Amino acid sequence: MTDSSSNTNVKKLESFFRHRLVARLDELQRTLDVSGRTVFRVLGSMGYLSSYSHAGKYYTLARTPSFDADGLWAHSGVLFSSHGTLRNTVVYLVNKAPAGHTHAELQDRLRLRVYDTLHDLVAAGEIACAD
Fold first, then answer.
1. What separation in angstroms does the CA of 130 have from each of 66, 90, 103, 114?
2. pLDDT for residue 2
3. 3-class SS string, the chain
4. Cβ atoms of 103 and 115 closer than 8 Å
5. CA 104, CA 18: separation in Å to the nearest integer?
6. What is the mean pLDDT of residues 80-105?
7. How does residue 119 score in pLDDT terms, banded at 50, 70 and 90?
8. What is the Cα 75 distance to its own chain's centre?
9. 19-75 pLDDT, tens per residue?
10. CA 41 – CA 113 distance, rounded (Å)
11. How remote is the C-alpha of 3 from its chain's centroid?
12. For residues 108 and 105, what is the distance between their CA atoms, to the nearest angstrom?
């Protein structure tokens, strides 16, 4: 990809994200009329985040979110974390709380099912389960 087409693609995505704060990959591919790989190259040059909800299928520019005190941001039902993945976010929240969090508290705070993530984290020894 030439510098000229790269700059053009950045400008197109800048314009797109001025009107829509979050998007799926297929929407970005259509906007640029390029492959997914090229979209990620352009997004990478701009700085982006993927959602921790919806299996990471939504993207936003890194400068867009106004994260809350826990590093969480939601837009139109799509959830993002300054900690990246759901897994990293759960570890952060559990370690931040003096007494940890219950499954129900995490599920309420993160607004999605976290049972499997918690199970995997305990099994990997990344967080401890209270008896």
1. 33, 15, 11, 17
2. 60
3. CCHHHHHHHHHHHHHHHHHCCCEEHHHHHHHHCCCHHHHHHHHHHHCEEECCCHHHCEEEECCCCCCCCCCEEEECCEEEECCCCHHHHHHHHHHHCCCCCCHHHHHHHHCCCCHHHHHHHHHCCCCCCCC
4. yes
5. 36
6. 94
7. very high
8. 11
9. 999 999 999 999 999 999 999 999 999 999 999 999 999 999 999 999 999 999 999
10. 31
11. 28
12. 5
Neighbours of 63 (CB within 10 A): 10
Which amino acid is residue 125, in one-letter code? G
Measured over the CA atoms of residue 63, residue 69, residue 70 and residue 75, the dihedral's sign is: negative
Two structure tokens written together for 32:
């640029």
Q: Are β-strands 48-50 and 23-24 bridged in parallel, bridged antiparallel, or unpaired?
A: unpaired
Q: Which two tokens stand for residue 17?
A: 């994200």
Question: Average pLDDT over the chain, rounded to whole?
Answer: 94
Which two three-digit tokens encode residue 112? 């999605």
**Which of 98, 83, 108 is CA-nearest to residue 130?**
98
Q: Are 90 and 74 in contact (CB under 8 A)?
A: no
